[in-house]
Amino acid sequence: MRRLLVLILAYPLTLAAQPSDTGNWFIYFGNKKINNRWNWHHEAQYRNFNFVGDTEQLLLRTGLGYNLTENNNNILLGYAFVYSEPYLNDTDAKTSLKEHRIYQQLISKKAFGRVLIQHRYRFEQRFMEEDFKLRLRYFLSLNIPLNQPQILDKTFYLSAYNEVFINTGSTFFDRNRLYGGLGYRFSKSTRIEAGIMNQSTSNNSRNQFNLITFVSF
Question: pTM of the predicted model, to two decimals?
Answer without folding.
Answer: 0.88
